[in-house]
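WARN retry 2 of 3 for item q-0093 after timeout on previous attempt; input resubmitted unchanged.
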Amino acid sequence: MPPIRGRRGRPRRKPRELFADRGYDHDKYRRQLRARGITPRIARRGVAHGSGLGRTRWVVERGFAWLHAFKRLRTRYERRADIHLGLLQLACALICYRQLPVVLK
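OK item q-0093 returned
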């Protein structure tokens, strides 16, 4: 994992906490994360919504939705990884270009 920018000093190589949805709610995953010094923020199954994880995870889900607007990324047709990576980078550039008018307003 690349270094995480932040405070002065030695850069962190792992996140402080991990956000996940109910699909990863298992004690095994929580133990593995704690053993690595990462605080798990995983929604519990069977508990009413409202834990607050949605505010953080929404950013990631929105990014996936933007990428899925490009059909060739939604269903991977390319066998070669370099072509797929190129299309992914092109899609990211187009998404950023579309967001510029929103940021500049």
